[in-house]
Amino acid sequence: METTAVIILNWNGLNLLKEYLPSVIEHTPASIGTVIVADNGSTDGSVEWLRSEHPEVQLLIFDQNYGFAEGYNRAIRACAPGYRYSVLLNSDVRVTDDWLSPLVSFMESHPEAGACQPTVRSALEPEKFEYAGAAGGFLDRHGFPYCRGRIFDTVENDCGQYDTPIQVHWATGAALMVDNEVYLSCGGLDAAFFAHMEEIDLCWRIRLSGKQIWAVPQSKVYHLGGGSLPASDPRKTYLNFRNNLLMLHKNLPDRVRRGVLFRRRLLDTVAWLKFILSGQKDNASAILKAHKDFRSMSKAYTTHPKENLLNVDTNIIFDYYVRARHTFSSLKI
């Protein structure tokens, strides 16, 4: 009996579906997983192509683009009655033989886990980890995300150095396995985020609920990355800065939240100045808009946890730029 819904959220991604969906169909055993495409109101013929070329794939069709967060919320609410787990799988992910069973086995044997991820390698440079998630995600004392295998723009080759399962702060949204009951009880992805950082926020709330997040390197997938927005796009800059502030505001207790957000404003000012000096005025404006909208949106979050899960010593900016520690293994975690 299938235990897992493998859900691919699609919005006008016909070319990506043509390129990457066949591997998911081929390597997802019907005995444990069902491939489902949730379409976010596409107008590029995606639905028609799926019905014609892959009738074996289940379809969920939404009336509009609800974004990454709400799109997956709707899909998991629809799938939860029939499946214990879901994998939120990006449409630009190529999977390999036996990618799913290690994740399912790990969740089954670790009831304390609320979510996990495979190791994510780059589809363009297969020897390298992929930027968004690599071999498991962490947060430093200021809320900056980094990964086993990726710190800022330094991405390591995967030489087996991170092949041990490890409990992490967050798991990548590119290939995120969740316990459906845990996912829904924690409120799912925050639809206000729309896209970017929403999986880190979700993992934070899962950990606050008492469950754990794990990286399971016995499973490996390959992610194209940047399939929706390129790294230099001001819209991506805006969402990353705004959503990181929202995530900190939501999930930090009163006694530390104001101090962390004050330091982040100072650090974001440095980032703004760097964009100005490099002639990237659109990205600089995106940071200003992110802070403006954060001030307005933060008013919707009036309750905060008592536990501080950001109680870590790592200062990833200092470690990276001053101590020249560019790999995860060189950090003192």
**Distance separating the two termini:** 40 Å
Q: How many distinct helices? A: 10
Q: Which secondary-structure class do the elements indicate?
A: alpha/beta
Main beta-sheet annotation: 9 strands, mixed
Mean pLDDT: 95
What are the segments in which pLDDT stays under 50 over at least 5 consecutive residues?
none
Number of strands: 13
Structure description:
The protein is an alpha/beta fold and 333 residues long. It has helices at 14-27, 46-53, 67-79, 101-109, 180-185, 198-208, 234-251, 254-277, 281-297, 316-321, and strands at 4-10, 33-40, 58-62, 85-89, 93-95, 113-122, 137-139, 145-147, 150-151, 154-155, 166-168, 175-179, 212-223. The strands form three sheets. Strands 1, 2, 3, 4, 5, 6, 11, 12 and 13 form a nine-stranded mixed sheet that branches. α7 runs antiparallel to α8 (254-277) and α7 (234-251) packs parallel to α9. The mean pLDDT is 95.
Q: What are the SSEs and their pairings?
A:
Blueprint: E1 4-10, H1 14-27, E2 33-40, H2 46-53, E3 58-62, H3 67-79, E4 85-89, E5 93-95, H4 101-109, E6 113-122, E7 137-139, E8 145-147, E9 150-151, E10 154-155, E11 166-168, E12 175-179, H5 180-185, H6 198-208, E13 212-223, H7 234-251, H8 254-277, H9 281-297, H10 316-321
Parallel strand pairs: 1-2, 1-4, 2-3, 6-13
Antiparallel strand pairs: 4-12, 5-13, 6-12, 7-8, 9-10, 11-13
Helix pairs in contact: 6-7, 7-8, 7-9, 8-9
